[in-house]
Every structure is written in C-alpha cells, then in structure tokens.
Design brief:
Length: 354
C-alpha cells in the first residue's frame, strides 16, 4: 500500500479536521498526518523530521502569504509544498506557484480525490524536479527495441521501463508507452495512484505553435513593468512642476510640466496595451476585484492625461493666465497624482500579494 507522510500546517481546527478526514477516507493509500498550528512549530518540526509533503495554510497566526512559504522553503528546500488558501485568490495562487509551491488549493472547494491527487503530483514533481519533457522526446521513449518506456499522466512523465505490465512498451494490449495516457485513465479500472511507485522523469511540456512561442517570448521580456512606470511617474511630476510654477511663477517650470505631460500622453497607450497583454496571457484575463479595479483606474488615468494634454495643447498659457480656468486646469493635473499612486498600489498588490 502507498504510504505518505504529511505535515499539515493549519491553524483552524475545523479545516484541519476536514482535511484529515478527507485523507483518511482515501482508498489505496495510508496517510500519516501530523497536525500543527503555527509557522514556528512547522519550522521546528522540519528540523527534526522529513516529510513526504507539506500542506501549508497561508494564513497562519505567525506567518501570512508568501512570507510563510519562503520561510518553509528556506528550512526545507527539497520538501514538496501544497499551499492552502481560504478563498479563491488567483493572484496569490500564481505567485505561490512561481515562488516554488507545487500546487495551490482553495479549502472551500476541496474534496478528498482532489486533495490526494494534489499531494501525489506534488511529490512526483519534486521527485522528478522540473525537467521539461517535450512531446517529441516522450514519443522516442516507447519501450520498443530496448528503448526506455515512458508515459505521461496528468502532466507528469513516469518511467515504467522496469514494470512487467509494460513489456515492450505496451500495457493490456492497447496502451502504448511514449504517449500521454491522461484520457485513457477515465476508462481504466484503477486511478493514477498505481504510478506512484514509478520514477518520475519530469513534466510534459505541451507543444506550442509559433504564435504561442512568440507570446511566451514577449511575456518573458516583462514589457509592462517597464512601460507602466513612464505615464505614472510623468503624470505625478507634471502635477508637481505645475504646482511649483503656480507658486513661484518661473516659466521654465511650466514648460517642464508640459513636457512631462507630453511624455505621459505618449507613454500611456503602450502601458495600457502591455498591461492588457499581461492580464490576458499571464493572468488568463482573471476578473478578480483587484484586476477590475486596476483596469478601471487605468482608464481614468488615461482620460485625465488626455484631457490635460488637450487643454494645454489648445491653450499653452492656461496656467500662466492665472484665471479661474488656470486653477481648474491645475486641479485636473493634481487629480493625476492619486490616480497614478492608486494604480501603482494595485499593481503592487498583484505582483506582491500578501
């Protein structure tokens, strides 16, 4: 029987009981579960004993978010970690996996089958590292003519060369090695737990089209973090220099404000375009509140920048005239500051969620 040692780090007794009951009811596997409630206890326990997998809640009394995950990774760098979230926080889930967690689960949506599958995949991924295996490489390991026999299941590539059930790369006269058998599992009399005893080669990388490769290349350039700072910083500085001109009367300050406003106007379309690209590709067009707010505030800032630019272009002396229109224009410029700061704050929440 398969045996898994699980360290469950969960401060909520109700959630901890539910998770333990799910694993206890799983068939074909015996889970030895040790429950602790704080990050400090977790770190101390990792010093004393190794576990097959960690279930780590990211809302502990003494450790929240990625800070807790990072501390656990430092203490046990080889341990596979599945993080637990109290709510469906897509941004935090993405950041946790990019930080090194093998999987991310929302406690409210869990069932025993999904939980056990996540634990097995976490162990398999860590055992095989993150070595990418292409579809072309998988096909070459078909178990025939003395070649190794590999198969893919659920994105994990296993080496079944030593199994008598896969003689010459064929199982049950219908399943061939060197292929992805994910679709065949539904009709099988067993689950993927039978593969737990086989070595893990790595993770199957789906073949990508040329368009997908181009998108991935653009994503790796991180164009949005580069471009977004220009309209934000120039908008704020344009308002500051206009305020200094209104206070002191030095015409060079007004000209500087205009040039900064021009730079913000020119840079805004690129910032919005790269932001929408990141949103669709990196975050799969997720419509959580923080993304909705960021898109809305981006639109507000773009409209404010365009309005200020058009006003100053049509009336170059609007601020120098010191009329009621001058103060209205200055007020519109100053509105750029909270819009730009708010936009930066929302961006920080996406990139660095707690």
């Amino acid at each position: 029987m398969e045996y898994i040692r699980v360290l469950l780090v969960e401060s909520n007794p109700t959630d901890s009981d539910a998770l333990q009951e799910m694993l206890a009811a799983s068939r074909g596997v015996e889970c030895h579960i040790e429950r602790i409630a704080t990050l400090a206890q977790c770190l101390a326990r990792l010093d004393a004993q190794a576990f097959d997998v960690l279930l780590l809640d990211l809302d502990l009394p003494d450790g929240r978010g990625l800070n807790a995950l990072t501390k656990v990774q430092v203490r046990a760098p080889s341990a596979p970690i599945v993080v637990l979230l109290g709510e469906d926080d897509f941004e935090l889930s993405v950041r946790a996996i990019r930080t090194g967690a093998q999987d991310s689960l929302v406690k409210a949506h869990l069932d025993g089958r999904q939980l056990l599958r996540a634990l097995r995949h976490a162990i398999a991924r860590r055992a095989g590292g993150h070595r990418p295996v292409s579809a072309a490489e998988l096909v070459q390991h078909d178990g025939r003519e003395g070649r190794p026999a590999w198969l893919a299941m659920g994105g994990i590539v296993y080496d079944v060369t030593g199994s008598r059930m896969w003689k010459n790369g064929v199982h049950a006269r219908k399943h061939a090695a060197g292929t992805d058998l994910g679709d065949a599992l539904a009709a099988a009399p067993h689950g993927e737990e039978v593969l737990a005893r086989f070595p893990v080669v790595g993770e199957l990388v789906p073949q990508r089209t040329n368009a997908q490769r181009l998108v991935a290349l653009i994503e790796r350039l991180h164009l949005h973090p580069i471009s977004v700072h220009f309209p934000q910083a120039c908008s704020i500085l344009a308002a500051i220099f206009a305020t200094l001109f209104a206070a002191g009367g030095d015409r060079s300050l007004d000209e500087t404000s205009w040039h900064l406003l021009l730079a913000a106007f020119v840079a805004t379309p690129a910032a919005i375009a790269t932001g929408l690209f990141d949103w669709r590709v990196t975050y799969r067009a997720n419509r959580t509140p923080v993304f909705v707010a960021k898109i809305a505030l981006s639109s507000v800032l773009a409209l404010l920048v365009a309005a200020c630019f058009a006003w100053r272009l049509l009336d170059p002396d609007v601020l120098a005239a010191r009329t009621p229109a001058s103060w209205a224009y200055l007020a519109l410029l100053l509105a750029l500051v909270p819009a730009a700061v708010g936009l930066g704050h929302l961006g920080g929440r996406i990139v660095f969620p707690e």
